[in-house]
Hints:
The structure is a homodimer.
Chain A: E1 19-22, H1 24-32, H2 38-51, E2 55-60, H3 80-87, E3 95-101, H4 107-110, E4 121-126, H5 131-143, E5 147-152, H6 160-171, E6 177-181, H7 189-206, E7 209-213, H8 221-231, E8 235-238, H9 252-258, H10 266-282, H11 291-298, H12 304-311, H13 317-326
Parallel strand pairs in A: 1-2, 1-8, 2-3, 3-4, 4-5, 5-6, 6-7, 7-8
Amino acid sequence: MSVKREEPGTLLSFRPTIKVLDATIRDGGLVNNFAFRDEFVKALYQANIAAGVDYMEMGYKADKDIFDESKFGKWKFCREDDICSIVGENNSPLKLACMADVGRTNYERDICAKANSPLDMYRIATYINTIPAAIAMIEHCHKLGYETTVNIMAISNATEKELDIALELLGQSPVDVIYLVDSYGSIYPEEMRVIASKYLEAGAKYGKQIGIHAHNNQNLAFANTIESTALGVNYLDATMSGMGRGAGNCAMELLLGFLKNPKYKLPHVLRFVEEQMPRLREEGAVWGYDIPYLLTGVLNRHPSSAIRFIAEKRTDFVNFYQELLDQD
Amino acid sequence: MSVKREEPGTLLSFRPTIKVLDATIRDGGLVNNFAFRDEFVKALYQANIAAGVDYMEMGYKADKDIFDESKFGKWKFCREDDICSIVGENNSPLKLACMADVGRTNYERDICAKANSPLDMYRIATYINTIPAAIAMIEHCHKLGYETTVNIMAISNATEKELDIALELLGQSPVDVIYLVDSYGSIYPEEMRVIASKYLEAGAKYGKQIGIHAHNNQNLAFANTIESTALGVNYLDATMSGMGRGAGNCAMELLLGFLKNPKYKLPHVLRFVEEQMPRLREEGAVWGYDIPYLLTGVLNRHPSSAIRFIAEKRTDFVNFYQELLDQD
């Protein structure tokens, strides 16, 4: 009755091909406008190295002509010298990643050759209708020497046909990893297994790794992540204490508690969470499972209305549910 | 690749055989020593009726010779007249349940004939080594006219052989429903599907329904509940806002957001949560996913040490993890 794995691995074994990516600064930055103290980012960098995490995402490479630099912390822009002020030459096994949104990054101007950057990987975030633009960015980053991923957002609103075409196009691109993203936290494990199998099939056909980035609107981010892992998804996104927009992400402490790879060391994550996360909450950052996010998840909506509901300190859940239904 | 269901039902259809049980007063009572205000219990009773919930568990039938009545609220003891003061003659489709622990209930003295009680169902909670005593209680309650369930606790510490024997014994008893209980919140969905299949096989052999009672230590209570449901588990425990010992249970609002049965009406649950749960938290009740519960779940331990850690307002997670490991 249990799901058969496509690669060897049981609850007591592990796949060395699994990679864990810490997205705390990038997805968590959406909570606090990227206003992280340097001390926090340095402690996170050290914790990730000690815990055996494979990648750390430093933030976005946003276009300064589109976003006012005075309104965001520096990790919205990920300048090379800002990264170096944290990691030096990054003499560690931890690789560094940066996200670039289609249409919000001046990649030809702002992304320099890998030889001149501490970054190892660019993650291209795209909607399904901007895949051609995403592929142009992938090719650009690939030529500059970076590893690349593509994160297709809002797939719960795409048709199966659209997704098939997208995976075919991306399979033929030089991208290394194709990410399954549950943007609205609307996907149940049963559906997630079907979608992950589709991605894995495309990945096997074109020699691409598959990743997962889950949201916790229905308290399913961890469940969806480990269910996908069992099928062969190898790149796993997580954040400290699940910090991320709205209901947040798969929590690093849950994920490292589950993975059996001996390289991963949970106590270093626990120490970081213990020492660093309370102050972040005291400073006003709000995230995590709550009923408004559950409702946007159930209804397959963007979490923005739930974020607003919580920011306004409203608690009239029944009215909010009706407002969401009235938008149909 | 998706798990095949043993009964018809897809994400857009539903099984009329599904029954939802609200365990807020019983499992939630472990958080606040059953000190619920009558107004709260009445509002919960009304909300459950309006939401289409099938069963409401009123509390425990604990033995007054073992537990000091002055130290617990009345729902620890579930006297018939206390129940009637809330529900009158219960002229509603909502059935009422009560839990009786093996060794902690004087069932021959305290459980009266169904004709003289507003209760419809007794739920017998047992460890695997007290199954014979549980069967005596099941037979007693069955003869008195009640529906019965048996909830086998702490199965993550039982051997497969022990569980096989227990299911055979219970299959031959008059019990109506056998509950799969993840007492420590230690079971992953992949394991849960295997265990649920084992219970369902025994249930099919002996004509018993299977139920699930999940805990949220690893944020998996909802995922494990709906994964079991997809395989044919029909009796589903949930509590308002997930209220329950330690990390709590599967949240009713998550479960009713998922179930497609048109009889279930989420807004009535949302209204109850909105109007009643904040005051309960203000009164000092503490429950819900937190790192200490994650750690007891990962290590397959009783949550008591995590509950103590949180009650003492400790936040040194690394030390706590080492303390748990040192107990091995």
